[in-house]
Design a protein that fits this description.
- Helix 1 runs antiparallel to helix 4 and helix 3 packs antiparallel against helix 4.
- The chain is built from five helices and five strands.
- With 129 residues, it is mainly alpha-helical.
- The chain has a three-stranded antiparallel beta sheet with strand order 3-2-5, with helices on one face.
Amino acid sequence: LKLGPAERILINGAVIENGSRRSRLNILTPGANILRLRDAIHPRDANTPVRRLCYAAQLVLSGDRRIEDVTNELLEGIEQLSVALRDPISHEALSAARKAIDAGQAYQALKSLRSLIATEAMILSLART
């Protein structure tokens, strides 16, 4: 994990701040929940279908929810998005997110879902015009 100066991360519920220089950490514990705080979605910004799913996965990484508590919500949301987002790249990301959720890997699910934020923003901006 490469960190910029003063960058903050959340590891298993603990906020860690890097010093004044770039650094690199090796996380040795398998299954550790890690979230870069610069990538975190604020609750008020979870205002679109993709962002709501990202936020649900993020809650698992922050330790506020268990993966079992959000699995149905995530899988139902992914199913709904697969109807709306029909391009191959989106379907690939949704498929990867579904597999990650099935495997209990919240970070991988979040990573796959985050890749859809720009696509969703483009679709929503076209719908407004």
